[in-house]
Design goal:
Length: about 475
């Protein structure tokens, strides 16, 4: 080791000296003593290794503080916001539905203040957690009673466990779904303690198949919305109304798992018409389950609506306590459901419906507006064009229906590897930009970029160049 290096090593300040340097004051203020000390230690270790390796590096306290600051700043929150330009509106890996402002405000209030979660303000005594959303759900679905749990997977689990523990759960072979995140109907039935009784075939199941399967051992009949796939061609299924009659004849409830489930007709938002929860209730199912954060546009939740008797049994199941939702989400759920009382303005207020309802023309105009600004941020190794693309609803909802959309298509003039590098760099931005690489281009579908966010989007891209 050269003399100059050993002397530099000797000049490395002590941790306490760096902490006492005037430059460290702001760091201590922002991050606290523990994190700042840790970062300074890391910076000193790095400087020591560099010097031992023969490199020259600055060793004044101010230099070490500078390095420590970079280390602290390089730890952004793991759950920080991203730009979802994948074209999938309800992207499960990006957190599905964005909440309406009213729901955000309600959640913030519930975090900041005590709330009458299980307190009856009229009587001054103990109240019920479900009361806050029960009446709204009854009003919006026409069901006699309702309850809410952690997510729809929990709703299905709870229904099966309540009515088919140690008994048979009758289901068509065409409806044994798997959805993302390892939710597989046979496994859920097993964990709920139900004996799965498969009827029919993959493509065709008839009323007689159900009738023959129901016996004294049967606990419930189940119908499952095949959310994320379609069986086409030579097919037959038994509709819910007929299944209700079959279940009634057997003296057991029918559980209809709608998956996404919607409280309003979505055809006005460019989405294919699907049965609403109200229709499923009208068909007579004893229990109907659906998600809070799919097409409904609220926080993660699982709703169970149905007859007073069935919901009563659900509420008496000790598992219900383990699957309940917290005050923050309950506040957001209540606020989201309230918006459904004014369906005419849902399209502006619920981000999910606002995004779904955007036309290709509007998105294309936005792409033209942003094209130059984006091109300026990425330099001349790439070309940026406006192209047509197809968005998806996502979360397994309506898998075959796409929405005509528009995108910025970024193509490298040279090697494809530069495209991968760009996608990687954009995932490391202060607010990561998530697009989709397809057909040799990085495709940024702008469906989920609100107009008000355009300046922030460009500023964020520009920050990547700094
Ligand atoms: C999405 C879905 C579920 C699970 O709902 P989560 O809210 O994601 O737990 C259950 N059943 C069907 C048919 C679904 O589409």
């Amino acid at each position: 080791m050269a003399d100059s290096d050993t002397s530099a090593l000797r000049r490395l300040p002590a941790v306490a000296t760096v902490l006492a340097a005037p430059e460290a004051a702001a760091l201590l203020e922002a991050h606290g003593r523990v994190a700042t000390t840790e970062a300074i230690r890391g910076a000193l270790d790095a400087a020591r290794s560099a010097l031992r390796g023969g490199a020259t590096t600055a060793v004044e306290p101010a230099d070490i503080v500078h390095e420590a600051r970079q280390r602290l700043d390089a730890q952004p929150a793991a759950l920080r916001p991203v730009f979802n330009l994948t074209g999938t509106v309800l992207h499960t890996n990006l957190g599905r539905a964005l909440l309406a402002e009213a729901a955000i405000d309600a959640a913030v209030d519930a975090m900041r203040h005590p709330v009458a979660l299980e307190f009856d303000l009229d009587e001054g005594g103990r109240g019920e957690r479900d009361d806050h959303v029960r009446d709204l759900l009854r009003e919006l679905t026409g069901a006699e009673d309702a309850t809410v749990v952690n997510n729809n997977a929990a709703a299905v689990l709870l229904c099966l466990n309540t009515f088919a523990l140690g008994r048979g759960a009758v289901i068509s072979r065409g409806e044994l779904i798997e959805i993302g995140g390892a939710f597989r109907m046979p496994d859920i039935m097993a964990r709920a303690g139900a004996d799965m009784v498969e009827v029919g075939t993959t493509n065709r199941t008839h009323a007689a198949d159900y009738r023959h399967a129901i016996d004294a051992h049967t606990g419930l009949v189940m119908k499952v919305h095949t959310s994320n796939y379609r069986i086409q061609g030579f097919t037959a299924e038994v509709d819910a109304r007929e299944l209700v009659a079959i279940a009634n004849a057997g003296g057991v409830p029918l559980l209809n798992d709608l998956g996404s489930g919607s409280l309003v007709d979505l055809s006005a938002y460019g989405v294919a018409r699907e049965a609403t929860v109200r229709q499923a209730v009208q068909e007579g199912a004893h229990l109907v389950t659906f998600s809070g954060d799919k097409l409904l546009g609220g926080p993660q939740a699982g709703f169970i609506v149905g007859t007073r008797e069935s919901i009563g049994a659900i509420n008496r199941n000790p598992l219900k306590r383990a699957l309940r939702v917290d005050k923050i989400r309950l506040a957001a759920i209540e606020a989201t459901l309230r918006l459904y009382r004014d369906p005419d303005r849902l399209g502006e207020r619920l981000p999910t419906l606002r995004f779904l309802g955007r036309t290709r023309d509007a998105i294309s105009a936005q792409a033209h507006r942003l094209r130059e600004g984006v091109a300026a941020c990425i330099g001349n190794a790439f070309g940026v064009d406006v192209g047509e693309c197809a968005s998806q609803v996502g979360s397994g909802a309506l898998p075959l229906d796409t929405l005509p959309s528009a995108a910025l298509m970024i193509r490298p003039h040279g090697s494809q590897r530069t495209l991968e590098a760009l996608a990687t760099a954009w995932r490391a931005l202060p607010r990561p930009v998530i697009g989709r690489i397809t057909e040799g281009a990085l495709q940024l579908d702008l469906r989920c970029l609100d107009e008000a966010d355009e300046p922030a989007f460009l500023a964020n891209l520009a920050a990547g160049n700094a």
